[in-house]
What we know:
The complex is a heterodimer of chains A (286) and B (270). Chain A is an all-alpha fold and 286 residues long. Chain A has one domain (3-272): ABC transporter involved in vitamin B12 uptake, BtuC (Orthogonal Bundle), CATH 1.10.3470. Chain A has helices spanning 3-8, 14-39, 43-51, 53-64, 69-93, 98-117, 123-132, 140-159, 161-169, 171-176, 181-203, 208-220, 226-251, 255-285. Chain A is built from 14 helices and no strands. By secondary structure, chain B is of the alpha/beta class. Chain B has two domains: 1-87 and 170-270, P-loop containing nucleotide triphosphate hydrolases (Rossmann fold, 3-Layer(aba) Sandwich), CATH 3.40.50; 99-169, no CATH class. Helix content of chain B is 29%, strand content 23%. Chain B contains nine helices and eleven strands. In chain B, the strands form three sheets. A six-stranded mixed sheet of chain B has the order 5-6-7-3-8-9, with helices on both faces. In chain B, strands 2-1-4 form a three-stranded antiparallel sheet, with helices on one face. A two-stranded antiparallel sheet of chain B has the order 10-11. Chain B starts with 18 loop residues before the first strand and ends in an 11-residue tail after the last strand. At the A-B interface, helix 9, helix 10 and helix 13 of A face strand 5, helix 2 and helix 3 of B.
Amino acid sequence: MTALGGLLAPLRHAFMVRALIASVLVGGLCSVVGAFVVLRSMAFLGDAIAHSVLPGIATGMLVAGRGDRRSLFWWALGTSILVALGIGWVSRRGRIREQTAIGIVFAGTFALGIALLSRVRGFAIDLVHVLFGNVLGVSSGDLILIAAFGAGVLLLVALFYKELLVVSFDRTHAATLRLPVSVYESLTLILVAVTVVVSLQVVGLALTLALLVAPPTTALLFVRRVPRVMGVGAAIGAASGIAGLYLSYYLDVASGAAIVLVAIAFFLLALLATSYRKTARRRSRA
Amino acid sequence: MRRSRAERPVAHDPLAPALEARDLSVSYGGRVALRDVTFALEAGRRLAVVGPNGAGKSTLLRVAAGLLSAASGTLLVHGHAPREHVCVAYVPQRSDVDWRFPLCVADVVLMGRTGRLGPLRRPGRADRQLARAAMERVGLDSLAARQIGELSGGEQQKMFIARALAQEAEIVLLDEPLAGLDVPATTDVLALLGTLERATLVVALHDLAVAAASFDLVLLVRQRMIRFGRPADAFEPDALEEAYGSSVPMARTADGRLVVPDDDCVKEDR
Lengths: 286, 270
């Protein structure tokens, strides 16, 4: 089989084409929103929001039934936004350390999700799909949802870019500019929450964090302006999606894990390349 | 959310001082951080707020910036509550800033325009020109594209002053702007502050000598106001002892100079 043939072969399957489109969209979206997650050092918060989706999905399954994927999406979306706002509210109170508060919400919502899910028949398979994604099962309807909500998130980032940036870099300065800081901070959390839900089918909630964090961090090694971090990050995220899917097709490994492993591999390679470049520069200077 | 519309900043009361505190008390984290502060500062004056660590210097600045509320008493900026103004700039301590953030100097200075622009509007040519003029004024125009993490301490401070200028600030609050700077950088930043004639400056400092040499007025605090006035009047032995405690060794030299070997600063007194 030629290399081109190897690339084209999976595209004979309609589900692979849909999976590829979904992976590219999610890879790109995660990296743009992930730039804020990385720059504000809120990886743990992002992970907590991702895991808090579980009770929403479990409730959706109990209420609407396992098969009704559309209503599961809305349940997940509602819960994640609620939890994002809740975590933001708790961390602003300042009575408990933020990381501790996040940990409690994280563990609590996740346990609640497992408990609810254990009441659903066929619980193990559902849990695996929710945790690790099921990109090969993406339907055309799912693709439309992913594209629509992804576009919505990107539009909000574009519209409020300068405010989100000021609040991320220096919230004190943002407050003296009389920006509604807590509104923009909540908006950031909601954008993360929506992104997590949109990514659910592709990588699953346990692995979304990797797609949020790895591509922008890789981009940060090469470019030093926020818009470029988002752009290069999105390219890396999309490329991870494509390469991961091909890997999963030919090596027969779980697709979500393959996508994440490729994204992490990009990061490690970039880290090696930049540290090699740095030592080489230091040597040539000496 | 209390917020003044950026397009309609509150009109300044022309008869009111730039900054006026009346019996101001502030609580912070459940305890009184500062009390009994009363002073008035006319526009264009430069005030140094001095006192030992934890004396409430930053607290006072944060109230003036509209970031903290008074527990009792009032603090007015041009006759109105600080939160109603966009003309108050706050320059943070350098240690409070994430210097790894992927921004260049021009990006940060342009951020000063955000409040005046309002949401959904992008900075236009006029905003960029204001930002460029601000960078020229502080002498950073050649470093506009420089990564913020690659700046020296003095350059970092100048960048924030340029951001305040881009904000068209009339009151600039600086929290320990000289902390961690070497002598040339300190001289540089002080000289720059001296050129901001139209702005009212309030600067938290721990160096009494700098306060006495470079500022019109000083406010000596230690969880409460101890003295407000010209440095020569405010820095009396009693007041300094009240602020720093009797553990601070002070000595009067033959020509009437009062020597305070604290934080290696020496000040003059008649």
